[in-house]
Design goal:
mainly alpha
Length: about 170
């Protein structure tokens, strides 16, 4: 929670600076939730993806660290950052990098489909009676429109993100 609070406060401070100082540049922010997908550097485990991989080692506590919420593929997140920086029609926007809701039940079921059986020997069971995030992130539609406009492709599906991250 402290991490989320610090990111929120940093964004508020940035927008307040823009309002008070009125600099000669444009501020856009990208707001991602849980990042899943391909790890881009061999020495960086990837925080959210590392936790997801920990399920394969029988570490069920992971599901208490990240509750059911929204995910974004790490490459979609990176693309949205490029758009926020270079997109001339993107001005003073908060870009919500929220592809879709995920549940641990979905992730564990997908892992069983994606991976060979021997890699799933210690895979934890999904939580019983798992809840599902019910909120709608209406501004996420704008982010998907930006991805389509700039890259010709919308959100990466959860199964694809997991396949590339595992």
């Amino acid at each position: 929670m402290l991490h989320c609070a610090s990111k929120t406060e940093a964004e508020r401070t940035a927008w307040k600076f823009m309002e008070e100082k009125k600099p000669d540049f444009i501020l856009n922010t990208v707001l991602p939730d849980v990042n899943l997908g391909r790890i881009l550097h061999p020495r960086i485990a990837g925080s959210s993806m590392a936790l997801t991989r920990a399920l394969l080692q029988g570490k069920s506590a992971v599901m208490n660290m990240l509750w059911t919420q929204w995910y974004v593929d790490v490459q979609d997140n990176a693309k949205l950052h490029v758009i926020a920086l270079l997109g001339i029609e993107v001005k003073s926007e908060r870009i919500f990098a929220f592809a879709d809701i995920y549940t641990w039940t979905q992730i564990i079921e997908l892992m069983h489909k994606i991976l060979p059986e021997d890699r799933c020997s210690q895979l934890v069971s999904p939580p019983e009676n798992e809840g599902r995030a019910l909120g709608k992130i209406i501004p996420a539609k704008r982010a998907e429109e930006l991805l389509l406009s700039f890259y010709g492709k919308g959100w990466t599906k959860l199964a694809t993100s997991l396949t590339e991250g595992l």
